[in-house]
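testing teh design pipeline on a random one, pls ignore if ur not involved
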């Protein structure tokens, strides 16, 4: 089906799936397998799709590892109805139902071929000569008078790469690659890196955390498609050839889709991502307590962050905002009540972090957390640091999108037999 067993990364996703299980009548299976397991190493849990384990919804006293239970499912047909949808570890050879997940279709060509990604946004480590430059790397490019039919690196380039700057954070789901149009040269193997700035790169990896070496071309003209196991949010994509035929020469395109900013249901001036609205006050200079009050006055709270996706979206927004004057943006995390016991102001579970290296360090009694803004080390922008609560900074608020559709009491969508009373 082109999917994988579901991985779950937020309370909202958990609630959606658990609600589906509870509402499905009748549930005959004892459980629904999801992608979490510790098959390779006892108590080291991994998702089969390779995503980070940044959330859990274990039932009480689970996982228990009874009977060498190494695979995880969500309870289905269980007597304790309030446990339906919660997680437990099962034997991997048990017979159960299952839940698959796949990313929504996101394979639009992102603009290398047609020029929406401009010449200035395509750069490379080296070029064989001025007429073999990076801008010749557009997919399906044909050699023209005085220019080659591909990008070609210098012969002595020991760390060759070519990259595209996407301009804004974008979902990238794969790479299309092609050989040199006017000569028998092509790349046969390559790696891919992604980033939000040109100095801090991560490799595309397989579900086991191994850097993927993708298969390239076997001729000059065929377009080879390589899709990533898991989509990435990136502002830059870099292709690193590792093997080639005759010489490093290639043309390429990127596929993916935009990160949808859907502000329907959000107050004007707020930005919507998924189920939440966010407010970035780029100009404020307030303390943590003043920031918290400002959010509260707007019917929201300082943002809590619960997944890498949400972190990437917010960090990308900060990096792309060119007039950041504040050292940081306050978020809702703090250890004011108890040193090193971190809590979100909205009371949600602390199930994810994005600390910058060496943080938190509690220098000068730093009890409040922010995302770095205007900092010399650009690759740290958006990462977390502990700050003094009385520092003057900007802030980010978050509120659930307006969700006030009548659910059916008035028009009988809620049937009579679903309405009960105490007496």
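output:
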């Amino acid at each position: 089906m082109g999917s994988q067993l579901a991985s779950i990364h937020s309370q909202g996703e958990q609630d959606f799936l658990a609600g589906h299980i509870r509402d499905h009548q009748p549930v005959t299976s004892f459980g629904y397998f999801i992608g979490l397991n510790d098959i390779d190493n006892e108590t080291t849990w991994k998702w089969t799709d390779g995503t980070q384990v940044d959330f859990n919804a274990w039932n009480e006293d689970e996982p228990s590892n009874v009977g060498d239970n190494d695979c995880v499912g969500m309870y289905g047909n269980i007597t304790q109805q309030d446990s339906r949808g919660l997680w437990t570890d099962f034997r991997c050879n048990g017979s159960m139902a299952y839940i698959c997940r796949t990313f929504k279709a996101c394979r639009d060509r992102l603009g290398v071929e047609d020029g929406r990604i401009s010449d200035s946004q395509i750069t490379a480590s080296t070029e064989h000569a001025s007429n073999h430059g990076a801008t010749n790397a557009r997919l399906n490019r044909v050699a023209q008078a005085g220019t080659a039919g591909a990008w070609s690196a210098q012969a002595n380039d020991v760390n060759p790469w070519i990259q595209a700057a996407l301009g804004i954070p974008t979902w990238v789901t794969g790479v299309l690659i092609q050989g040199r149009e006017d000569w028998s040269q092509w790349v046969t193997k390559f790696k891919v890196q992604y980033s939000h700035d040109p100095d801090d790169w991560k490799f595309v990896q397989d579900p086991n955390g191994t850097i993927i070496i993708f298969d390239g071309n076997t001729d000059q003209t065929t377009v080879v498609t390589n899709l990533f196991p898991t989509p990435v949010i990136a502002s830059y994509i870099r292709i690193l050839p590792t093997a080639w035929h005759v010489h490093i020469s290639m043309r390429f395109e990127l596929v993916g889709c935009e990160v949808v900013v859907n502000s329907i249901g959000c107050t004007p001036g707020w930005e919507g991502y998924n189920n939440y609205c966010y407010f970035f006050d780029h100009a404020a200079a307030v303390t943590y307590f003043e920031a918290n009050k400002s959010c509260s006055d707007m019917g929201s709270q300082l943002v809590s962050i619960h997944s890498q996706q949400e972190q990437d979206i917010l960090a990308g927004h900060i990096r792309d905002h060119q007039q950041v004057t504040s050292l940081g943006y306050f978020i809702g995390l703090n250890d004011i009540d108890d040193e090193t016991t971190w809590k979100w102001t909205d009371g949600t579970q602390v199930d994810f972090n994005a600390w910058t290296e060496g943080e938190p360090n509690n220098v000068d009694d730093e009890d409040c957390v922010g995302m770095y803004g205007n900092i010399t080390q650009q690759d740290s922008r958006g990462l977390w640091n502990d700050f003094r609560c009385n520092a003057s900074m900007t802030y980010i608020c978050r509120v659930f999108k307006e969700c006030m559709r009548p659910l059916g009491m008035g028009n009988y969508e809620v049937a009579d037999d679903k309405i009960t009373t105490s007496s």
